[in-house]
From TrEMBL:
Keywords: Kinase, Membrane, Transferase, Transmembrane, Transmembrane helix. It comes from the Bacteria. GO terms for molecular function: kinase activity. The chain crosses the membrane at residues 12-34, 40-64, 76-94, 100-118. This is Histidine kinase.
Length: 133
C-alpha cells in the first residue's frame, strides 16, 4: 500500500510540473501574439521545444501512475535538471535566490519520493521473483 501511495503522490506532483511547463507554453504564445519577441522564428522554436518537454513530463507522470520504470527514471532526470536550473538561478551576477528556492524545493521533494518509489518497486519485484521460485 505504501509503495502505491508514494508512487501516486510522485505521479501527481510530476503531473503538476508538466502542467506548469504547459502554462509556460501558453505564456510564450501570448508573448509572441503580443509582439514581445525579438525573433519570431526563435520564439516559435522555443515554444515547440517547451511543448515537447511538457508532453514528456506529462508522459512521465502517467507512466509513474501506471508503475512503469521508465517514467520514474525520466522524472528523476527531470528533477536533476530542475535542480541544475535552480543552482544557476541562485548564482551569478543576476542571482535570484527566491526563484532558486521556488524551483529547488519541489524538485527535492519529488526526487525523494521518486527514489522511495524506485526502492519500493525493486523490493516488490524481488518479492515476486522469490514467490515464483
Amino acid at each position: 500500500m505504501r509503495m502505491n501511495l508514494v508512487a501516486r503522490v510522485a505521479a501527481a506532483l510530476v503531473g503538476l510540473e508538466g502542467l506548469a511547463v504547459l502554462a509556460l507554453v501558453v505564456w510564450q504564445i501570448a508573448a509572441m501574439i503580443g509582439g514581445d519577441t525579438d525573433s519570431l522564428a526563435s520564439a516559435i522554436a522555443l515554444a515547440v521545444l517547451t511543448l515537447v518537454g511538457a508532453a514528456a513530463v506529462l508522459a512521465f507522470a502517467v507512466a509513474i501512475w501506471r508503475g512503469l520504470s521508465w517514467g520514474r527514471s525520466g522524472a528523476i532526470v527531470t528533477q536533476v535538471l530542475i535542480l541544475a536550473v535552480a543552482l544557476g538561478a541562485a548564482t551569478g551576477a543576476y542571482a535570484e535566490p527566491a526563484v532558486a528556492g521556488a524551483l529547488a524545493a519541489p524538485a527535492l521533494v519529488i526526487l525523494v519520493l521518486l527514489v522511495i518509489a524506485v526502492r519500493d518497486a525493486g523490493r516488490a519485484a524481488r518479492d515476486r521473483d522469490d514467490a515464483s521460485a
